[in-house]
Amino acid sequence: MNPKSLEGRRRLDGYVLSFGLQGLPYLEPGFGTIEEVPLTSSGCPLPSRAVCGVVHCITPTEWLGVQATEGVGSTRVGYQLIEVLVHLTDGRAVKALTLKAAALSLMKDSRNVLPSLRYLRLIQEGALFHSINPEYMAYLNAHPFFTLNPGWKAQAGKLAIIGLFFTMFSPVMWVFALQKLRAWASMFLATYGITLASHSKATVWQAYYGYGIFKTAWWLHNHVLQPLFGPGCCYKDAKDD
What we know:
The protein is an alpha+beta fold. It has 6 helices and 5 strands, in the order βββαββααααα. The chain has helices at 60-69, 117-129, 134-142, 152-169, 173-190, 204-229, and strands at residues 6-24, 28-36, 50-56, 79-88, 93-101. Strands 1, 2, 3, 4 and 5 form a 5-stranded antiparallel beta sheet that branches.
């Protein structure tokens, strides 16, 4: 996101960062989302890890582009659009739009799913760039991540998931690729005041198609690959995080 469009660093009370949005086992087990948690009488979330991030002031075209790249298209699966109240570091409270994973797309126990190191580093680097508060940075830097177990078994599981993904995704890959390319082009040109013809979010069938791929991958992992090759999402002590 263009730093010039930055409105302010913010804290989102009542939510914590989660990696429970189902991804691909052995590769990208969990994607980021936010999950609601109870608040204490002082207004702090339990556990005390209120989501910290950045509020951006962007155009409707840029926002549609963000939704398109994240596969927003269904009201039941994938990322959903929600309105939240965020607290800026200067003391102001403002309403903002963000994305939250639908219940159907969440893992049953998100504590057991870890992000890949690649994915976690994207979040850590973004937080560092925008000077997110030190306590939250420390939390992000200490967060465990998924590492593929050494040996041929884990590699075999990884290859099986890659094969499944390309088998299911290749027939419609060009549709998704063109849509993402258009979304990126729209967001880039918008920074120069150039607006492309109106483009929409991902369609419902695209959202469900992606959901089907991830769901199939996890069924294969839980019932076939994990018994044969070991887990492709976390280590046993991940529950203690």
